Amino acid sequence: MPDVKISALPSGTANAAAVVPATNAAGTTTQKVTLGSIRDLPHTHAIVDITGLQTALDGKQASGSYAAATHASTHQTGGADAIPNVVTSPAQLTADQNNYNPGTGDIFRLDASAARNITGVVAGTNGQAILLVNTGSHAITLRHQSTSSTEANRLVVPWAGDYVMAANGGAALLIYFTALSRWRVI
Fold first, then answer.
1. Can you tell me the distance from the alpha carbon of 174 to that of 186, in angstroms, rounded to the nearest whole number?
2. CB-CB contact of 11 with 40 (8 Å)
3. Quick one: which H or E segment has residue 171?
4. What range defines the domain where residue 96 resides?
5. Is residue 73 part of a domain?
6. Does residue 1 fall inside a structural domain?
7. Beta carbons of 168 and 136 less than 8 angstroms apart
8. Is 72 part of any domain?
9. How many Cα atoms within 13 Å fall on the side-chain side of residue 151?
10. How many CB atoms within 10 Å of residue 138?
11. Which residues of 144-153 are buried (b: 16+ CB within 10 A; e: fewer)?
12. What is the largest CA-CA distance in the chain?
């Protein structure tokens, strides 16, 4: 808050006891309003909704990992402030993809110009889940442990074989595990 001259304050906002002498850096003596009197100043703005702030303050006693876990749970589906999934449609696959980078998001609507292979997906963060959905008219195959992609980007299919996402709706849920340095197809 910028300094305000006492003479500029609305009448009745500070009493004589609230005004004290003060010396500034240049050595000039001025008058200042004490902090105690500031609470009595009239408000020139309205606070419309402090519900979220009040809720956060009420829960302030929680701390550490418990508080973080409690707060994080509110962002999950059904939570008070759930974060919706980010759905994106990357560029059409016009060739097989090694170390595929679909971009930022949670759900990727894929389309291919012909049957294509994905040998790996750029490494994620531990526990990150992404959903690949084939919206095109050609199959897209996720290649199990293909050496065409960097180790940390490779895909692990449960039956140790390739996973085919059928045309027009085939899908695969991938979860990244840093301990394995792999995406697991679920």
1. 6
2. no
3. strand 171-177
4. 87-185
5. no
6. no
7. yes
8. no
9. 4
10. 16
11. bbbeebeebb
12. 84
